[in-house]
Amino acid sequence: MIKCNIVSFSPLAAWEKPFDSENTYEDDFFVNENEHVRVNMMQHESDYNRYYDQDLSCEVVELPYKGTAQALLILPDDGKMKQVENALSKETVCNWFSKFETRRLHLYLPRISISGSYDVKDLFMEMGITDVFSSNADLSGISGSRTLQVSQAIHKALLKVDETGTEAAGATAIILSKVSLPHITTKFNRPFIMLIFEKATGTTLFMGKIVDPTME
């Protein structure tokens, strides 16, 4: 028996501050120090919540959707991805929120269209969910038979990001600066982490590491 777990974040979530497709251009995205791919790089200049974490060596930018959903983009410095991944927790995210400053950003973000399938059986077993994978499994509530057990647990993930917003499956007020500050250029042209969450409840809807925005 194969269990497929698909969680959706739909319909397309629209950016509060959409990118203009006429400003999108081809640029390099550096997958690693030896490899790069060509991407459609979106750009937009506006006021965003932004924080640079000196301890973790990463830049964090909040992009609001229309409604209560938010995207959190985390750009580690070169060679610091593992450090950021290991430190990523609810406490870390709350700390970033408490230290956000609204700054004028010239933001560069690639269009994203990625998907993947992952066997999460080992993850479930580490969490103590073991009986369903053994002969002790009782799945009679969904199958009417006590002879079934789960052989695999597959998670299917899909993420699309473009100028208008985000469509993810995996399962708002505009804040203006009170003073005019020089803009900061933030370019997501190397691997980064993206979180999508519902701000009112703090529920994480999607989390992924973008290593190659073009990988289908």
Features of the shown structure:
five-stranded mixed β-sheet, globular, 216 residues, Alpha-1-antitrypsin, domain 1, eight-stranded mixed β-sheet, disordered N terminus, mainly beta
The gross shape turns out to be globular
Q: Structural class, judged by helices and strands?
A: mainly beta
Runs with pLDDT <50, length 5+? 1-11, 137-151, 168-180
Separation of termini? 26 Å
Report the major sheet.
Answer: 8 strands, mixed
Q: CATH class, please?
A: Mainly Beta
Strand content: over 45%
Number of domains: 1
CATH H-level superfamily title: Alpha-1-antitrypsin, domain 1
Radius of gyration: 20 Å
GO molecular function, one term: serine-type endopeptidase inhibitor activity
Keywords: Glycoprotein, Protease inhibitor, Serine protease inhibitor, Signal
Domain Serpin: 1-213
InterPro entries: Serpin_dom (IPR023796), Serpin_fam (IPR000215), Serpin_sf (IPR036186), Serpin_sf_1 (IPR042178), Serpin_sf_2 (IPR042185)
Question: What would your notes on this structure say?
Answer:
- The relative contact order is 0.27.
- The strands form two sheets. Strands 3, 4, 5, 6, 7, 11, 12 and 13 form an eight-stranded mixed β-sheet that branches.
- The chain has helices at residues 81-87, 90-99, 121-126, 140-143; strands spanning 2-5, 8-14, 25-32, 35-53, 58-64, 69-76, 101-110, 112-119, 152-161, 165-170, 184-187, 192-198, 203-210.
- It starts with a strand and ends in a 6-residue tail after the last strand.
- It has a single domain (2-210), classed as Alpha-1-antitrypsin, domain 1 (Roll).
- It is mainly beta.
- Helices cover 12% and strands 49% of the residues.
- InterPro entries: Serpin_dom, Serpin_fam, Serpin_sf, Serpin_sf_1, Serpin_sf_2.
- Belongs to the serpin family.
- This is Serpin domain-containing protein.
